[in-house]
Design brief:
Blueprint (H helix, E strand, L loop, with lengths): L4 E12 L8 E12 L4 E5 L6 H8 L7 E6 L5 H7 E4 L13 H12 L4 H14 L16 H13 L5 E5 L7 H18 L2 E5 L3 H7 L2 E6 L2 E7 H6 L4 H22 L1
Parallel strand pairs: 3-7, 3-8, 5-6, 6-7
Antiparallel strand pairs: 1-2, 1-4, 8-9
Helix pairs in contact: 3-4, 4-5
Length: about 260
């Protein structure tokens, strides 16, 4: 089976301007290489500042890589690539204009990227809302009328509405409470099964990563230091960083268990 996503030795240098008399901070991403099959979920884990989010933005085309290639099912056209891979951020709902209805926000995406007429856009939006567990009537709702979980479902709808083959999700559950997080994880698994979507999933939550991912990439200082099948990597971690991530998760689970049954 050929790869739907093929990342070849990409590199990018990020320069954060220092404040007042502080020096500029430079971070180098790469070289990074990996491939992904259709319907596969790849998780990217690592400490803060390891380059996970920069890699996510590079995959989604939100920044211009300096070296290497990102091939998506051999599509070279920029617009075609943009429609094939879509991104969900941790606080995606913050990007919603509170003065616009959910229908208007989603319609804007369709107007900019498709040739659908108004009636076709309306039908596509309502179908997508239903697919993510909302109601057709949510077309008329505004951001402040929705719960955090519903807002994240709208963010998912905006990513899905162009019928992508890959979703890049950067910490999509971090701001959700545990019960809503569980519902959203199950929704993503359901959609992946129904639509054959590929997911690139970035998270600090090793428990969720173990639950939903097929393979995992461990990043540190802008490069991948370990990768493989999720079960293998977390059962027999080879690098010190991976061992620490697994141990930190184990300690957190044990602490929760003690507090719950003490």
């Amino acid at each position: 089976m050929s790869a739907i996503l093929d990342v070849k030795n990409i590199e990018y240098t990020y320069i954060q301007k220092g404040k007042l008399f502080a020096k500029d901070q430079t971070f180098h991403l790469g070289p990074v290489s990996f491939s992904m099959q259709a319907g596969e979920t790849i998780a990217i884990v690592g400490n803060n500042g390891s380059g996970k989010s920069l890699l996510a933005k590079a995959l989604a085309g939100a920044l211009n890589i300096e070296k290497g290639e990102i091939l998506i099912a051999n599509k070279e056209d920029g617009r075609e690539r943009h429609n094939t891979i879509r991104m969900i951020l941790q606080h995606s709902a913050d990007a919603f204009n509170p003065a616009l209805s959910i229908g208007s926000i989603l319609s804007q995406t369709l107007r900019l990227n498709t040739d659908l007429n108004e009636n076709q856009r309306r039908e596509k939006i309502e179908e997508t809302l239903v697919n993510v567990g909302l109601l057709r009537e949510h077309f008329h709702f505004y951001r402040h009328m929705l719960s955090d979980g519903q807002q994240q479902r709208v963010a998912l709808a905006r990513a899905l509405i162009l019928d992508p083959e890959i979703i890049v999700a950067d910490e999509p559950f971090a701001a959700l409470d545990p019960s809503v997080r569980s519902q959203t994880v199950n929704l993503i698994l359901k959609l992946q099964d129904e639509l054959g979507l590929g997911f690139v999933f970035i998270s600090h939550n090793i428990g969720i990563v173990r639950h939903i991912s097929d393979r995992v990439l461990v990043m540190d200082k802008g490069v991948i230091i370990e990768q493989g099948k999720t079960h293998d990597v977390f059962t027999h971690p080879r690098t010190i960083l991976t061992q620490k991530l697994v141990q930190a998760h184990t300690n957190l689970v044990e602490k929760h268990f003690v507090q719950k049954y003490a």
